[in-house]
Structure of ABC bile acid transporter:
Amino acid sequence: MQTRDKKAAIIGEALQGFRQIKFSALEDRWERSIMAMRDIELTATWDVLMSRIMLIACWILNPLMTAAIALGVHSYIYRQLTPAQAFTAIGVFLQLDHCMQSLPNIITQMIAANVSLQRVESFLDSPELGNILSSPAQLLEPADPDSPVINFEDARLSWPTDDEYVETVSERFILRDINISFPVNQLTIICGKTGSGKSLLLNSMLGEAELISGKITVPERPSDQYDHHANKDNWIIPHSIAFVAQIPWIENCTIKENVLFGLPLDLDRYEQVIEACALTKDLELLLDGHEIEVGTGGINLSGGQRWRLTLARALYSRAGIVLLDDIFSAVDVHVGQFILNKALVGELSAGRTIILATHHLSLCKSHVKSIVELENGIAKQFSSVQELEEYLGAPVESLDDTDETLITSEGVLQEGTILDTPDFNSSTMKKTDPLKFVTDEFRKQGSIGSSVYSKWLKSCGGWTIGIIFLLIYTISTSFNVGRTYWLRFWTSTDGENERNLQARFDHPQIFLTSSAFDGNITTLSPEVISKHSTNFYLGIYFALCVAVSIFRIYGYIYAYKQSIRGSKNLFKTMLFKVLRAPLRWIDTVPFGRVMNRFTTDFNTVDFDIVDTLTWGVGDVFRLFGIAIAGMFLSPYVLLLTIAVSAFSAYLALQAITAARAIRRLDSINRSLVFEQFRTILIGITTIRAFEKRDNYLEKVYRRIDDSSSTLWNTTLCHNWLVWRIGGMASAAYTMAIAAIVAATVTDAGLAGFVLAISLEFSSALFWSLFHAGFLELRMNAAERVIEYSEMPTETLDGEEPPASWPTAGCLEVKDLVVAYNHDLAPVLKGLTFNIDRQTRVGIVGRTGSGKSTLTLALFRFLEAREGSIVIDGHDISKLKLQSLRRNLAIIPQDPVLFSGTLRTNLDADNEYDDTALFDALRRVHLIDPSVSGIETPSSCSSQNQNIFLSLNSSISEGGLNLSQGQRQLLCLARAIIRRPKILILDEATSSVDVQTDALIQQSIREEFADSTLLVIAHRLSTIADFDKIMVMHDGKVAEMGSPKELIDKKGMFWGMVKESGEVDKLVKMSRD
């Protein structure tokens, strides 16, 4: 199970970072890593199967050897063995065989259940999230503006640690001696450098940090939100908390459902919130407006839209305390000013305590009541901006790039900007059924197709493997039937010679036999067989038992070995297809759905299918053996066998039809459980902050109940089938007994043989149909795996570019037409531009203008419908995707890091030496450029060791042990190491403090002087001194030229400059 956990973890990480893997062409490396873990898992699975085969061997050998030894000892002592004695004993041992048949399954399941229970117990015994918050002695009066609503007293704070990621004391980041308070119903700003602990301080107010010492006083939140009693006059609950995380958490539902977050719809308040968060225009541009499905993690939205949506959720909530983590980094400055005026200090903020962590202090300085600055692991609090400026010895404008004219100017929102929209009213709420971005999981109908069985068998080695497997069971069954028949001869010669075996054919009450059968049986009459010693009969019987055991045990070993081979092949094929699936596919398929196939379905493919198949084939061959033996007695025995089997098969078909549909539904329900758990784990901090634990527990319970109900109904189908087939088998056995009793003359050996094979028939019939039904159900997993193994991938063919390509970085785009799907209207509509080598180009445009689409087209995530993109003389449509993407680079707004070390995240293929890696870290100021020794000051504290000093420092999954800004800088350092000729940046330093950002921009100019830079910018100040600006509008280039040329032209770019509120600053930068 541990290996399965590790496999699931690495696959989950790959799916989470799928976009980064695709952009960086890391599919091959991740495929090798996952397959290496898969090999470890299959090795452990084989060990388990070998242990199981030992149990099976005991089950097979015990009844056979016990019967042989018991009969031999009895014959040796008493010198004879009568049919009554022999076949009675065989019947007893047969019942023992049936009982022990279930023993390997029972033992295996008990061991697995015990391991699972221990794991659950270990998890439940793990430390709970302790309540680090204290309640004030008495409730605060909201009317008192000077009352502290949250208070820290000598607090020492750190992020919680766990067993998976253990930090040493020196690695832990700690905020020390925190003595600050936050006034009620006021705006408080938390500022500080990148990585100074702003997010840690906010999370500590939610109880999501580790309180090493000291005290944090937060008003106790109400135990009941009374959401169903919400009304306009009693909306705000003073001590309730809302939280906007630095990484926006958005559910896969509609925009309206994300904003409401379980609250009733107050249309007036909803419209007010949408307008205050500058979402009105965005919703008009979106196809289904408020009812659009945003996709997993809000993939359908831009970074700024996701941030504003989570802000809207907090503003619409009933919270009296609102904690906001860096909401201005992903929006334009004028949008930030609009949000400040409308949301943070407007009507929606009335009666609320707002605590905001931000780098944009000057944006809020005229409204802030209190300021907390974090530096060197210490928090200092200032009651005014003037007090902070006296402490810094500089104006706050020096801390960020927000132009003061923006704050003081009136009428910032000019006509035609994204924020100038018609009045929002209920008529804009879509009435038609919205399009679903994430489609429901496809559920097949009818029986499992023969092609599924054929493809599964092919993955195991093909029809040759199947034929060998059937041959092994044919030989085993032949020896087993011969063993029982040999016992009949043995007993007849010992105790029943006085009876003529031929007499049985004179009594049609039992069998009506043809002359041909008479002749066959007569030649085998004991009267014509010379009598041998007991050792002779016992020796042959023992040899037959050994042969049966050997072939049956080898049959299991052979089947398990080929199944492991087939499972590995299927996994490799499916992994290959998933890693090379189009980017659009992973955006529209929920994480839980893919994980379910890589985990639960493959657990079934690894073991359950072959186990059921092996048992089932053995039972079917037993049934055939009985039918063949019956043919030597009478054709009516064969007819009776066929009749009973056919009717039982009919009953089984009814149960299987229902159970198969239920099993397919169970697979889908299980995917929903996985997806719900993932959603909760990602947004656990937000869920707990909003006090929505019970709501999400109820959702999980519903998902689990739906999944459990399918298991319950499958069990009902199974029991329905067991009862009826058991009845049919019992009826057949009763008919055999009645036929024997009705005979006036019979051979005891024959009667014993008939009863033995009748009892064997009852068991074989039941287990054959039972395993046939279960095989059909379990092949559903193979069906789902094969479905993903055959899905289309991106184009894998193409030309290899020259080894040094691209050498210059020249980019030519001509008449480019690109759409997101063949049936959708194009987004880029004849886009044409040329970029020379070593040119820095800023790309700007309104939402929907095509900036992100151009990026996807450059990496060929979207293929050109018309036109071409040429890089250094090579049309990228003719190149191999891996080669193209490997030679380009992008730094996204949402950085992606993988679990491992600092070294593996900087240089995954270990191509560069330590000097190059440390140099890149200095260039992005993650370590002090002035210090080249072993130690360097931390950016946060002399007491907090800088983890970037060691390339072996641990990086947790997603880089969650780093701040958002540090993750962005680490991604930039990764690009500096590679030094690509074409680099695309999408607000790559949006979460970095302004002083560091200024240094980073200088490093970008120096390190990428030989590269072509394409920068998608939200803040015009980051590109105002670039070589060229490209303004996009409606999928075309509206303007392109130097910043000075476009400003002098007084066109669209000049309009954006005026809207920014930074006119003087931007004009100066363009002319310097």
User: Anything to note?
Assistant: The two ends are 63 Å apart (CA to CA).
